[in-house]
Design brief:
Glutathione S-transferase Yfyf (Class Pi), Chain A, domain 2; 9 helices; 235 residues; Glutaredoxin; 2 domains; disordered C terminus; 8% strand; alpha+beta; 4-stranded mixed beta sheet; 4 strands
Length: 235
């Protein structure tokens, strides 16, 4: 659905992020969810100073994006936001209680059992690449990720999606796995690589990503981020 400045649903995103983070800021997950269920939404763009302000911390105590508001509910965390969006209209959440529980299970699995390990690769390769311990630590980080991918690959098997039809669980899992594109690790697991490709081929994903990237087309130069700034591992 098109972005609508008068829409009921609002999320926050960054006005600018460095090149490596474009396409990976976690507000893309909310955008994708909106597109999948066919809800118009608006984006309130903020800068790094505002995201760390007391006013924003009242809404998001950790000083990150995205946040979400629909007039009735104000929440943060991309997984919680995606679930909330999925509950507004058909398309991402199964109607039966068991199916709903399974979809939420995969959201939590993506964020708790996969993403923290994926994020460590960004730490050693990017944010702490100049530290003497990063090169020594990297092999163990890669092996841990490889182990998690093996387990996920076994769970997916030859299925198209994790549990029946495409759900909010797949949306979040694909979003997490995308962060491994540059590492080459996904290529070691052909079924996971194909799974991510199917997710990225969805028209809703493509619309969401195009709108996200359009945010930065006219963005002026901004000083590089340090590890302490809020983008961190893609926020």
């Amino acid at each position: 659905m098109p972005i609508d400045p008068d829409a009921k649903y609002e999320i926050t995103g960054f006005k600018w992020v460095p090149d490596f983070a474009r396409g990976f800021v976690r507000e893309t997950r909310a955008r994708w969810a909106f597109e999948e269920v066919g809800l118009s939404y608006k984006v309130r763009l903020i800068d790094f100073d505002e995201v760390k302000s007391q006013a924003q911390r009242h809404f998001q105590p950790f000083g990150q994006v995205p946040t979400y508001s629909d007039g009735d509910v104000e929440i943060f965390e991309s997984g919680a936001i995606a679930i909330r969006i999925a509950e507004q209209r058909l398309g991402l959440m199964p109607l039966d209680m068991a199916g709903r529980a399974h979809a939420i299970q995969w959201v939590i699995a993506a964020l708790n059992s996969v993403e923290p390990f994926v994020a460590q690769l960004s730490v050693v390769d990017l944010f702490e690449a100049d530290k003497p311990w990063s090169a020594e630590r990297r092999p163990s980080v890669v092996e841990t990720i490889r182990s998690r991918l093996h387990d996920l690959s076994e769970a997916l098997g030859d299925k198209q999606w994790l549990d029946g039809n495409f759900s909010v669980g797949d949306l979040i899992m694909v979003s997490v796995l995308r962060e491994l594109h540059a590492s080459g690790l996904l290529k070691e697991f052909p079924n996971l690589a194909a799974y991510v490709a199917r997710g990225e081929a969805r028209p809703a994903y493509q619309r969401a990503m195009a709108d996200h990237l359009a945010t930065f087309q006219d963005a002026g130069p901004t000083p590089p981020l340090s590890v302490s700034q809020p983008i961190g591992v893609p926020a």
